[in-house]
Design a protein that fits this description.
This protein has about 140 residues and is of the alpha+beta class. The protein has 2 domains: about 35 residues; about 80 residues, 2-Layer Sandwich (GMP Synthetase, Chain A, domain 3), CATH 3.30.300.20. About 35% of the residues lie in helices and about 20% in strands. The chain is built from 4 helices and 7 strands; from the N terminus they run βββαββββααα. The strands form 3 sheets. Strands 1-2-3 form a 3-stranded antiparallel beta sheet, with no helix packed on it. Strands 4-7 form a two-stranded antiparallel sheet. Strands 5-6 form a two-stranded antiparallel ribbon. Strand 5 and strand 6 form a beta hairpin. Helix 1 packs across helix 2. The chain is elongated. The two termini are about 35 Å apart. The model has no long low-confidence stretch (mean pLDDT about 95).
């Protein structure tokens, strides 16, 4: 996977991959224009979408109703260091599930690649590459 993030101005960014683009901004009280989600909201949205994908696949595999499945991702921001605290994924199934089916669905959702990434954190390496813009080099 390759994601490219470009600064658009102030605190706004585009996030691009495979010809698709998302935008990122900050609320007005953080110096933004509130025209797009913040990075933590995009992160939670991605986790929720991943969980929903696994939930729908599970329901389909078990011939249960799946249209209208929703996932709500909830978290609070914590400080020192800045991060998201406990994350709750609230999966709403359109199917009436018994206790065994609920447990099985929960196990499927927990297999989501992003859930696994959070519970088995990757090594994150930061590489700094200096790329002066042509107008700065010419000055």
């Amino acid at each position: 996977m390759n994601i490219k993030v470009k600064h658009l101005g102030d605190v706004q960014f585009s996030i691009e991959s495979r010809g698709h683009t998302l935008y990122c901004d900050q609320p007005q009280d953080s110096g933004g224009y509130d025209e797009a989600m913040t990075p933590p909201e995009i992160f939670l949205g991605a986790l929720g979408a991943c969980a929903a994908f696994y939930a729908v696949a599970h329901l389909k595999r078990h011939n249960l109703p799946f249209d209208g499945t929703t996932v709500e991702a909830l978290a609070e921001k914590l400080k020192s260091p800045a991060r998201l605290g406990e994350i709750v994924l609230r999966v709403a199934s359109p199917a009436a599930l018994n206790e065994t089916q609920q447990l099985s669905l929960g196990q499927s959702v927990a297999r989501c690649i992003l859930h696994n990434t959070l519970t088995h954190p990757p090594v994150i390496t930061t590489e700094i590459v200096s790329q002066p813009s042509p107008e700065l080099v010419a000055a």
